[in-house]
Design brief:
Blueprint: E1 5-10, E2 12-25, E3 32-45, H1 46-55, E4 59-67, H2 70-81, E5 89-92, E6 99-105, E7 113-120, H3 128-140, E8 147-152, H4 163-170, E9 175-180, E10 192-193, H5 197-204, H6 212-226, E11 230-234, E12 240-244, E13 247-251, H7 265-278, H8 283-297, H9 308-317, H10 320-323, E14 326-329
Helix pairs in contact: 1-7, 7-8, 8-9
Length: 330
């Protein structure tokens, strides 16, 4: 997986974490007053998928949009400090970078708990000029990567209309993966996708079954709806389901179902999945590695990544996801 390039067209998000110690109850309102301790900003949304590819030793080639504001400038700075090229990240004039701010509180030696979150969100579709900018950047990276990731959080930077142009860049033998929060069905021409359970059920129009027999009936329907070759569904404490053209499988969760924080776990999954595919792994091998990676980051606080060493240790120390894997042909 080391040094494998991944083309990444993503909705860029800044994740801010403000933490403090409880001071007292306010006399103005029945709310807690925190004494400020510190603040951090990490890549969120599609930018978190980019950061995860880099943390695992891959070479992300990100394309996205940020505002000409503090969050946008800090986000670019954080990515560049991680050795990630920012030449494909365009600053929009008058645009506010999507920013999710979490307020955390707790004692000096205790784990900080999230008290409230507020979001700055501004959806703006690509202008013709911005589509041209993205198109030129795609052309500059033509032939560089054989796997592409589309991470659509609904902020407008990843329209389904660009799938065809991405296909031209990765070539007919390349692989396009997508994670779309609200409109996965609109991304025609994909090779694979990594929706969570809720997103997959919205696509299917019904709940995802639990039994392997019922999954074997559901799989072909889902693949046909997307026109895809494989589909990896993340299901929280129930692990993952992988569907391909031949059959489906249930992958048990790595670790415990008592998670610390699910923030950004889906970004870790698609980043790991894409990187493994680029290295020549099969969809099943890639799904198993992504399952391990997701199980690691949900035990970390905040928007997290993992290292190659952490992934190696998880694989060698816990054979259960492979030993308990269940597979059924259609």
């Amino acid at each position: 997986m080391a040094d494998q390039p991944i083309l990444m067209l993503v909705d860029m998000v800044a994740d801010r974490f403000l933490s403090g110690r409880p001071k007292r109850i306010s006399r103005e309102a029945p709310v807690l007053i925190l004494s400020y301790e510190d603040e951090t900003m990490t890549p969120g949304g599609g930018a978190n998928a980019v950061a995860n590819v880099a943390a695992l030793g891959g070479q992300p080639l990100p394309i996205g949009l940020v505002g000409d504001d503090e969050s946008g400038r800090l986000l670019i700075e954080v990515l560049e400090n991680a050795g990630i090229p920012a030449t494909g990240i365009h600053q929009r004039s008058g645009y506010r970078t999507p920013t999710k701010t979490r307020i955390l509180g707790g004692g000096h030696h205790s784990i900080k708990q999230q008290i409230v979150r507020f979001d700055i969100e501004e959806k703006r579709d690509l202008s013709p000029a911005e589509e041209e900018i993205i198109g030129k950047q795609l052309e500059q990276w033509r032939g560089r990567a054989k796997v592409a990731v589309l991470s659509d959080y609904g902020y407008g930077a990843v329209p389904p209309s660009l799938v065809e142009r991405v296909r031209e860049v990765v070539g007919p033998d390349g692989t396009i993966l997508c994670d779309s929060r609200y409109r996965l069905a609109e991304f025609a021409g994909l090779d694979g996708a990594t929706p969570n359970e809720e997103e997959a059920e919205a696509l299917l129009g019904s709940s995802i079954p639990d039994s392997l027999e019922d999954l074997a009936t559901t799989g072909p329907r889902l693949l046909k709806l997307l026109g895809a070759q494989f589909l990896l569904i993340t299901r929280g404490s129930h692990g993952m389901n992988l569907f391909d053209l031949e059959g489906c499988c249930q992958i048990p969760v790595h670790g415990t179902d008592q998670v610390a924080d699910v923030t950004g776990a889906g970004d870790t999954v698609i980043g790991t999945f894409a990187l493994a595919l680029a290295a020549g792994a099969t969809p099943l091998e890639s799904a198993l590695l992504a399952n391990y990676a997701g199980g690691i980051v949900v035990m970390k606080r905040g928007t997290a990544t993992l290292s190659r060493r952490e992934l190696e240790l998880a694989v060698t120390s816990n054979p259960r996801p492979l030993a308990d894997l269940q597979w059924a042909k259609y």
